[in-house]
Amino acid sequence: MSHATLLTGIGELVTFDPVHEGPLGIVRDAALLEVDGRVAWTGPASAAPRSDADEIVEAAGAAVIPGFVDSHTHLVFGGDRAAEFEARMAGRPYSAGGIRSTVAATRDATDAELRARLGRLVTELRAQGTTTFEIKSGYGLTVRDEERILRVAREVTSETTFLGAHVVPPEYADDRDAYVDLVTGPMLDACAPHSRWIDVFCETGAFTVEESRRILTAGADRGLGVRVHASQLGPGGGVALAVELDAASVDHGTYLTDDDVALLAESGTVATLLPGVEFSTRHPYPDAQRLIDAGVRVALASDCNPGSSFTSSLPFCVAVAVRDMGMTVAEALRAATLGGAEALRRDDVGHLRPGARADYAVLAAPSYVHLAYRPGVPLVARTRVA
User: Fold this and answer.
1) pTM of the predicted model, to two decimals?
2) Running DSSP on this structure, what letter comes out for residue 287?
């Protein structure tokens, strides 16, 4: 039986619906009608179809935004790397090699331990307004462990990414080709049934462009969508490869050349920026405004992982992007909601237009601007996941 809920008394509603005000589709003194978990109507509270509602909920002047879409996380892992973080803050530079310590801890963890950690992190991100999130593997690097990471991840999200090509594990240090054979063969066979995407860390210290192309092409041939880690530690060929393969997203982009920016602007590939990484590694922040001005579609994601960005908070990422990456608050909010949806090639989340999932966050604030204006304050009063 159909059920309709009217959320009314909204002080400021962000919809991204062009029928409403400005690029964010803002409605003030607003209401939202939800029917069976989908947005049916948005507009002024004075015009709300109250007679259609089975239930009326009062927002008491709060701002309401679409639920955050976190398109890049690594939520399934064992152990932590607090000691590495402390050493980095004392001056030791970040490199991709630290991943191997998490691999060892993850291989030692039981499925129950992985589920328990995952559950805590999902509770965290939900409390901070995230309603849709992706999870990558990459901390197992054996057929058994990559498969079980993705199997556990699939229990909480449909947005799962096979990242067997995170780094070459120590046991294959002297035979990289054999590891690529494993990733594109038995590991892919085991992981593809639990995955929507395939990803690769195309970076110095991880995988070359040629190795990355081989791995991503194998995944695409199995029906997986393509994602790429690139240009985190320095410029390279990862962005060009992502565009060549029509990747949904190329992530990090800390060191982008003018050619990279031009390629992205002409492509369907989203540039996903991960400000928590630069905050934690002290690498320079990417210039988001440079990308936006060039016409590149931009997303913000947490990259929640135990090494380079152990935060599950997209409000934090929004605040950092505004403070240090040249974004307006409106641009950062779009990147963390609609931009994240574009990076996952989803049209049903990240906005509150009619037909979208009724996923939203009610803020303990009168405006979305407070997400950056009051950094570090828990401003999400309630998260609705349809």
Assistant:
1) 0.97
2) -
